[in-house]
Amino acid sequence: MVRGVCSWRDMGPLIRLETTLTGDRYLSILPDHLHSSIFIVHSDRLGQFQQDNATPHASRVATKWFQEHSSDFRHFHWLPISPEMNITEDIRDALLHAVENRSPPPRTPMDLWTVLKDEWCELPPRYLQTFVESMPHSVAALLRVRGGPTRY
């Protein structure tokens, strides 16, 4: 499993997790990686941290940590049933597509990690900007269906 931070203008580091993410493991990542990553991609400190409401993200320990660090950065509180509103799904799909098209394909976990890091760094800013620019349309569609499923 990997985690990454990106913004309109830049990609932060990709982080490799050796095991399944739990609330406690997520809490062990946040202090070491979130602060430094958010300042890499949002050096103007105007960005907001966004995550979905996956169980580790919404865990009691993670929620408490975000409350305690609310003055460090802005945290966008995400709707619990709107994964289509999260651009990370699109980025994940792009990475998976790039891995599938590699020749030769990665054969070991280390090969896969190397390919993922390479492809992550190769995502052009315009690619990310397209997804960010699509958000007003996605939000409008979500409002029209009152939080239900959308085509976006």
What would your notes on this structure say?
By secondary structure, the protein is mostly helical. The protein has one domain: Nucleotidyltransferase, domain 5 (2-Layer Sandwich). It is 49% helix and 11% strand. The protein has 5 helices and 4 strands, in the order ββαβαβααα. Helix 1 (23-41) runs parallel beside helix 2. The longest helix has 20 residues, at 125-144. The mean pLDDT is 80.
Low-confidence segments: none
Mean pLDDT: 80
Shape descriptor reads globular
Number of helices: 5
Alpha carbon gap, first and last residue: 25 Å
CATH architecture: 2-Layer Sandwich
H/E order of the elements? Answer: EEHEHEHHH
What is the number of beta strands?
Answer: 4
Instruction: Write out the CATH superfamily name.
Output: Ribonuclease H-like superfamily/Ribonuclease H
What is the fold's blueprint, element by element?
Elements: E1 2-6, E2 11-16, H1 23-41, E3 48-50, H2 60-68, E4 74-76, H3 88-100, H4 109-122, H5 125-144
Parallel strand pairs: 3-4
Antiparallel strand pairs: 1-2
Helix pairs in contact: 1-2, 3-4
